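User: Can you recover a sequence for this backbone? Please restate the input before giving your answer.

Assistant: Of course. Working from this structure:
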């Protein structure tokens, strides 16, 4: 009915329904609670996105807590799966770019109910913009800082990366500040333009590990350092997204040594949950944003 209302012909409707069916099959492998699936008209395209408040994660590997001289002791840390019991997940796919998928996982600090990280997935004029903002600390004040940054980055999506970051930097000054990772993918050339402010990681990953990461700026959004003559020094770098590679953005709630597994799961959803389980840090909010252009 939605496709008919917006004038899509039978061939286009069949393609969209096939994508929805594929999404549902993928979601069922990881969901543990009801999922909201939304179809939105964007210019001449449809955005298919889903959200669930609790996903099924693989059990993390147990970590040895005893010292080397205590070898033989049965003292081991139990898997910290309880910390991940409320991981929120969402996924995005555009109907005219069926191979383009974006996955987003987040969870708050174990002692908080509100996540201090926020993410943005936005498409404008042939470009997909991805953002992870990490409010300093955790809890409501961290969330406020991340929200302000994301709000201004979304409002300025028609601007260049540098101008968008500078606008967010100015507006975030009234908050405790945030760190930031931001990337844009040109859908025609598959060129990634990216920058970071602080310790949010952005990188292109493949089986062999991380292939590329922008240099970024050692600063805090809204509060300075890393400045040039009083102005935040925004360093934007570019790199080609090669076939089979993934674009990842993640906050410091995931370990910086994050690497893809040697045997990659079949679906992007399963890969994202594996990474989140294996590299999530117990003492902070955690956010992972992952983009793939391969089926």
């Amino acid at each position: 009915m939605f496709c008919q209302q917006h004038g899509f012909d039978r061939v286009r409707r069949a393609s969209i329904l096939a994508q929805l069916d594929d999404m549902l099959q993928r979601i069922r492998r990881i969901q543990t609670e009801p999922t909201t699936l939304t179809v939105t008209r964007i210019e001449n395209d449809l955005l298919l996105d889903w959200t669930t408040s609790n996903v099924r994660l693989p059990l993390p590997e147990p970590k040895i807590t005893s010292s080397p001289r205590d070898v033989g002791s049965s003292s081991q840390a139990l898997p910290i799966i309880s910390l991940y019991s409320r991981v929120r997940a969402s996924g995005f796919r555009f109907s005219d770019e069926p191979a383009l998928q974006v996955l987003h996982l987040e969870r708050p600090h174990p002692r908080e109910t509100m996540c201090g990280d926020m993410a943005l997935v936005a498409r404008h004029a042939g470009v997909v913009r991805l953002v992870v903002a990490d409010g300093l600390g955790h809890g409501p004040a961290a969330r406020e800082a991340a929200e302000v940054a994301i709000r201004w980055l979304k409002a300025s999506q028609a601007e260049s990366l540098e101008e968008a970051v500078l606008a967010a930097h100015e507006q975030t000054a009234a908050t405790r500040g945030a760190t930031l990772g931001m990337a844009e993918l040109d859908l025609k050339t598959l060129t990634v333009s990216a920058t970071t402010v602080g310790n949010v990681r952005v990188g292109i990953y493949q089986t062999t590990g991380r292939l590329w990461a922008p240099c970024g700026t050692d600063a805090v959004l809204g509060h300075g350092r890393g400045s040039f003559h009083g102005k935040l020094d925004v360093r934007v770098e570019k790199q080609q997204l090669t076939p089979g590679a993934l674009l990842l953005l993640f906050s410091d709630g995931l370990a910086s040594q994050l690497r893809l597994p040697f045997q990659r799961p079949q679906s992007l959803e399963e890969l994202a949950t594996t990474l989140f389980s294996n590299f999530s840090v117990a003492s902070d909010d955690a956010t992972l944003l992952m983009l793939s252009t391969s089926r």
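That completes the design. Residues 63-82 have pLDDT under 50 and may be disordered.
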